[in-house]
């Protein structure tokens, strides 16, 4: 099992940047595919970006070219660098770890993009 803790959220102006971090505790972090999801008020949770255990990443169309997902297996961390933020990026962001049928979620971190 793996436990996840996110950090790095906050209030930022449109066009600004934030970096979210996800620290994993437990065993075998390198085996997990890692993802970042977000949920805005009144909307369903959606995938933002994911990176496989082999380092292959993909992104939602809405964030391509603006967000970058990364991982550091030695430190058991995953990160989401968010640039050129827009008000529509406002949401609670969740870190996810997935291995076969096993899913683990963090508690979420709020990102608010507003002037």
What summary fits the major beta sheet?
A: 7 strands, mixed
Structural class: mainly beta
Give the uncertain stretches in residue-range form.
Answer: none
Counting copies of identical and different chains, the oligomeric state is: single chain
The count of DSSP E runs of length 2 or more, i.e. the number of strands, is 11
Rg computed from alpha carbons, rounded to a whole number of angstroms: 13 Å
User: What characteristic shape results from the CA principal axes?
Assistant: globular
- What is the helix/strand order? EEEEEEEEEEE
Fraction of residues in helices? under 10%
Mean model confidence by pLDDT: 96
Tell me what portion of residues adopts beta-strand conformation: over 45%
The N- to C-terminal Cα distance equals: 40 Å
Count up the helices: 0
What does this structure look like?
This protein is mostly beta strands. The chain is built from no helices and eleven strands. The strands form two sheets. Strands 2, 4, 5, 6, 9, 10 and 11 form a seven-stranded mixed beta sheet that branches. The radius of gyration is 13 Å and the shape is globular. The mean pLDDT is about 95.
């Amino acid at each position: 099992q793996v436990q996840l803790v996110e950090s790095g959220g906050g209030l930022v102006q449109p066009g600004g940047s934030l970096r979210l971090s996800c620290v994993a505790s437990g065993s075998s972090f390198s085996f997990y595919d890692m993802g970042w999801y977000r949920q805005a008020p009144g909307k369903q949770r959606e995938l933002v970006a994911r990176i496989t255990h082999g380092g292959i990443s993909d992104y939602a169309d809405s964030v391509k070219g603006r967000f970058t997902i990364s991982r550091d297996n030695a430190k058991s961390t995953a990160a989401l660098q968010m640039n050129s933020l827009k008000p529509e990026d406002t949401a609670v962001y969740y870190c996810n770890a997935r291995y076969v049928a096993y899913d683990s979620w963090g508690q979420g971190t709020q990102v608010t993009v507003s002037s």
